[in-house]
Amino acid sequence: MADRYDPKGRKLRSNEYYDTKTGRYRYIFKDESGKNCTLYSWTLTKSDIVPRGKKQKCGESLREKIQALNDGTLQREVKNSDNNMTVYELMERYIKLKWNDVRESTRSGYRTQLKFMKNNKMGKRKIYCINTTEAEEWMQELHDKNGKNYSTLHVLRGILRPAFTMAKRNKWITDNPFDFPLLKKRYGGTKTREAISKKDMRRFLDFVRTDQHFSRYFPQFYILFFTGIRVSEFCGLVPSDIDFEKHVIHVKRQLIRIHDGKKMLYFIEEGKTKNAQRDLPLTRDLESVFRNVLAERKARINDTFVWNREHTDCERGFIWLDKNDNYEVAQHIENHFRWAVKKFNRIYKDELPEITPHVARHTYCSNLISQGLNPKAVQYLMGHSSVDISLDIYTTLEKKDVERMYLTLVNNPSFDFYPLDNSPVIVAPSELDDSNDEPDEIDE
After folding, report:
1. Which of 167, 182, 258, 285 is the most exposed place for a label (fewest CB within 10 A)?
2. Residue 442: pLDDT above 70?
3. Per-residue pLDDT at 191 exceeds 60
4. How do 306-307 and 314-315 pair as beta strands?
5. pLDDT at 190
6. The pLDDT of residue 290
7. Helical axes 150-169 vs 104-118, angle rounded to 10°
8. Residue 275: predicted pLDDT
9. SS3 for 269?
10. Whole-number mean pLDDT of the chain?
11. How far apart are the C-alpha atoms of 175 and 196, rounded to whole Å?
């Protein structure tokens, strides 16, 4: 092969090339799998000056990169058909692998994040050239400049981190730039959805029950506060799930609505956890509310079938309908809560905190615990996979409840660890010499 030279007259080594069109140097080689890879640089040696208008860090001349590659310290810079993909392309590839293993609601979240990343500057970056600092700075920018809250960032990173882990496992990159803790305090995620007090719950329900407009939603609010049912499970109820003979509510499914990029689609899904299918007891008041709801519903029934994702199961005739007789979903119920609280706070000086269907669920759990119900029973009623979730996340006890529960326990006759009104069983003998029991005083 004839000798090759760069514009400065320097002889190029084997597999080194100079591109006269772009002015860049490149080095071509094969990786361990036999794929062609390329290193690029604006300079050939360490002493070369970077062309005006071009950016290149110290130590990134072509021959320095080749040396680092041979030393095994430069893996992330190697470009091949896989690690030359963009962040967006990596996300697409990862989501494609997970698509059949996730619920339809998760798929909807995937679509939302892909749509966001498609035109984002980070989505257009090559996966091999992102470091952890840049990833953290980008997350901070999304929070500070784009107004993304902790929850949104948590979902986004929940896709990026495993996607980059996949890339690292396949040796497309050597480091995962998104493998860092997402601090709640930094991104405004310290606020949690907690239970409201019994006083606020009563104030809210009293207001809704007597309000000319929102009284139509009182049955929904009441049922959510006194069953703790998930809002998607609540929307998935059909009349046959309300068993007046056995006095239970059969919780069997969730009703969700997603946007697939073209139109809104309804789906039914199994419960969120393995314990989600359960029977909730019907109190006399709950039975009364459901009977009234079902009696009024007879005049407006929607019999449209809703299928699951696999098209192996379907259901129809869901209880809750909107003003157009379409099936109501979580967003409808959340709006009812938000508008009712907003109107209450416009009228009364002592305002209510934020109340959502999930806050009602938290409140139900806390009320059960505060009344002394066994935690395992609470776990069953809530449909939680673990009792720790019921106790650690969903329970907020008021101070007076803790005091009442404690006094009820210690004042119970069976709580007789050491009652003072009982005569001592062991009595110290008075005739023994106890002069040596006390230690001698120590002179200062």
Report:
1. 285
2. no
3. no
4. antiparallel
5. 47
6. 95
7. 90
8. 83
9. strand
10. 84
11. 44
What is the gyration radius of the CA atoms in the chain, in angstroms? 33
Residues 6 or more apart in contact with residue 232 via CB below 8 angstroms: 254, 255, 256, 269, 272, 329, 330
26 φ/ψ angles, rounded to the nearest 5 degrees: -145, 155
Question: Which residues share a beta bridge with 278?
Answer: 251
CB atoms near residue 287 (< 10 Å) = 14
Three-state DSSP string of 3-23: CCECCCCCECCCCEEECCCCC
Name the one residue in this structure whose structure tokens are 């720790």.
388
Of the candidates 193, 115, 190, 213, which has an alpha carbon nearest to the alpha carbon of residue 159?
A: 115
* Encoded amino acid at 65, one letter: K
Amino acid at the residue 126: K
User: Long-range contacts for 149-156 (Cβ within 8 Å, ≥24 apart)?
Assistant: 149/187, 149/188, 149/189, 150/182, 150/184, 150/187, 150/188, 150/189, 151/189, 153/182, 153/187, 154/182, 154/189, 155/109, 155/113, 156/113, 156/116
Give the model's confidence band at 29: pLDDT under 50 very low, under 70 low, under 90 confident, else very high.
confident
pLDDT in tens, 131-140: 888 899 999 9
Q: For the chain, how many residues are written?
A: 444
Strand partners, 424: none
Are 4 and 17 spatial neighbours (Cβ–Cβ below 8 Å)? yes
Rounded CA gap, 289 and 215, in Å?
A: 13
Distance CA 202, CA 217 (A): 15
pLDDT tens track for 379-428: 888 887 776 665 655 556 566 665 666 666 567 676 666 565 667 666 66
Q: Which residue has the tokens 């006890």?
A: 397
Q: What is the pLDDT of residue 9?
A: 92
